[in-house]
Amino acid sequence: MRVLLQRVSRAEVRVGERITGRIDRGFCLLVGFTGTDTDAQVAWMADKVVGLRLFADADGKMNLALADVDGAVLVVSQFTLYGDAEKGRRPSFIAAARPELAIPLYEAFVRALRERGLTVETGEFGAMMDVELVNDGPVTLWLER
What we know:
By secondary structure, the chain is of the alpha/beta class. Helices cover 21% and strands 39% of the residues. The chain has one domain (2-138): D-tyrosyl-tRNA(Tyr) deacylase (D-tyrosyl-trna(Tyr) Deacylase, Chain: A, 3-Layer(bba) Sandwich).
């Protein structure tokens, strides 16, 4: 499971003209799965996202978590996180999980974040999406489990 986490001051995702998710302060998570990912990895990643202290405290140090700043999460499925561009000019996506595995894992991840008390908005799995965000910082992390 791979997550590209961006701390944002606002983010939204659209499918065509329809907005499927919008948040203000929080994290935009681009999430990809591979064929060997499990529910245990999903739970670990949800705990990691909830616990990360990436927001500034009164002293300007990154010491506050999402709950401390009333932050939200925008989760967008992104199979291209498993793209392999080592050979040639066209990436291979063979390592990305097939939809029959990836969809339940994606839904479990969204559910796990909500169960941990976060406000969660989403994109639409498998759709062509436009993601617009204002990166706060910028602060961007690569998380993998």
